[in-house]
Amino acid sequence: MNMKRNQWLLMLAVAATLSGPAVAQAPAESTAPEGNSTTVHLIRLLVEQGVITDAQANALLQQARQEAQTASQRRPEPEVREGDVRVPYIPEVVRDEIREEVKQEVMAQAKAENWAAPNTFPDWVSRVKLFGDVRVRNESRFFSGDNSDQILDFVEFNEDNYDVNSDSATYFPPTINTREDRENLLRIRARFGLEAKLSENWTTGVRLATGSSNGPVSTTQTLGGGLSKKDIWLDRAWISWHPGNWNFTAGRAENPFVSTDILYSGDLNFDGISAGFSGLRFSQRGSVFGTLGAFPLQYSDDDWPSNSFDKGESEDRWLVGAQIGANWEFENQNRFQATLAYYDFTNVRGQRSSECFLYQSGPPCDTDWSVPAFMQKGNTLFLLRDIQLDPNDPEHTPMPQYVGLASKFQLFDLNVRWDTSLFNGYKLQLAGNYIYNHGYDEQEMWQNAEGNLVNNFDLNTGEIESGRDAWMVHAAFGSSLDLTRRGDWMTFLGYKYIKPDALPDAYNDSSFHLGGTNAKGYYLGAAYALNERLYFQGRWMSSEEVYGPPLSIDILQLELNARF
To answer: Could you give the C-alpha distances from 323 to 256, 361, 456, in angstroms and in order?
Structure first.
């Protein structure tokens, strides 16, 4: 019915436009279709109904005006005396000819631009939006020759279930590379998604992405591997309901919080549910917004332990977050934003097990569930298992171990940002981020670990070398900060300082210091838009450890980014 109505409206507008000049009006208005209010209203109605665009409506009125002027010139103008009312006359044959010509031109344009051919494509095409991006990066990693070469790789440690008994272990513990440079690593990232409008207030979408693993913080894939094909992962899948100023999302979706990459990587997506509101004004220039969310980090295995009739209790791990923020908009495109968030990573701290007798080939230790699902590096760790020695051969009793997080993580996260326009339209952005871990307590960490810490402590003093806070500052300057037009450019620089237990090391940027915490240093870079969908960017990052053995890492990234 809507399609038929739109078609009738289109034909009425054309007819009214053509016949408009025949209506009695002042001489100055005789060739102006705008003088016919019915015509104007019909054209505006077509625009409001989405049948034609503003540009097409203007073209329609202009065409009718020109045709009417041509027709009026075909006969001599009668003498107009003071007080006379002029009513132009157009012969029927001429009107039919004009009507047919304009009709053919309008319908040809409508067909070419697909604005008056509703049956050309199926209905879903108008409701689905495709989007994506591709990045090709050349990355080089430079390590100082003074770095310690005995920094353990605890990710591989947990994967191998490493035997810490030197008398029974058959290989050395895994360590990370800290001294050998890795130059010119060619890496790619490709993401492709679609978003569908289900109704006025409901949307859904999915996105696929590359990635070297199923880790949460990066969708970058290193090339090579004998020219093997690359992996594709389900990166997002969500359903959203947005009534008015509210938005509710369920599934796997983008980060709903305002944050920086010292806490959450730009590639990180969140599994769970969130609710947010925005645009609630408290003054002419100010508005508030907020977000609540609950996100499962890891569910305990229903059948754990598999080789025991006595199953373990549910020990699910969650992230619960709440954020409140405000925007202030000032003259000259100045904008200030401030947010405060609280994040509670529940049940993520490791638990020391009760006595377990692995030499008897019994069930695993009762706190193996508290092994982190994913780690990078930096957090304080301890040995989870209390393994008992075999009385028949105590020296050679295998002691396969796991490590877990020593600290709780209950974070306060403050973000501020100032955007302004300077001379010649240049843009400047200044931002800062401060994070405070309220759950950090060194005495609790010692007690919970029963003294079995494996990093971030001084053997000589017996003191933990860690901390509870992190911060960063960032500045960007350029002709545009979103690089949406050809020739746009920007430069940026910043500094990061992240103590070991200020935040979980699993979820932040995987490039700076090659991911994780216990890092400090600067970064700088520049970007240039080759056109509205393609830009080049270069970035240099230099970092070192905050505490512990020396670990200095410099990274150079040169990349080409395409988006569609």
So the answer is: 10, 48, 31
**Rounded Cα gap, residues 208 and 219, in angstroms:** 10
Instruction: Give the burial class of 450: count Cβ atoms within 10 A of its Cβ; 0-12 exposed, 13-18 middle, 19 or more buried.
Output: exposed
What's the pLDDT band for 85 if we cut at 50, 70, 90? low
The DSSP bridge partners found for residue 400 are: 163
Q: Which residue has the tokens 């982190």?
A: 372
Tokens of 497: 């300082």
Q: Do the Cβ atoms of 375 and 506 come closer than 8 Å?
A: yes
User: How high is the pLDDT of residue 40?
Assistant: 64
CA nearest to 99, candidates 67, 65, 144: 67
Tens of pLDDT along 478-509? 999 999 999 999 999 999 999 999 999 999 99
This prediction has a pTM of 0.80
3-state class percentages of the chain: helix first, strand second, coil last, to nearest 5: 20, 35, 40
What DSSP assignment string belongs to 158-209?
A: HHHT-B--TTT-SSPPPB---SS-EEEEEEEEEEEEEEEE-SSSEEEEEEEE
Round to whole Å and give the CA distance between 442 and 193: 45
Check pLDDT > 80 for residue 55: no
Query: How long is the chain?
Result: 564
Is residue 541 packed enough to be buried (19+ CB in 10 Å), middle (13-18) or exposed (0-12)?
A: buried
pLDDT at 114: 62
Q: What gap in Å lies between CA 35 and CA 52, rounded to an integer?
A: 21
- Which residues are within 8 A (CB) of 174 and not within 5 positions of it... i.e. 6 or more apart? 152, 153, 156, 157, 160, 162
* Token pair of 453 as six digits: 């810490």
The answer for residues whose C-beta is within 8 angstroms of residue 212's C-beta and 6 or more apart is 218, 220, 221, 222, 231
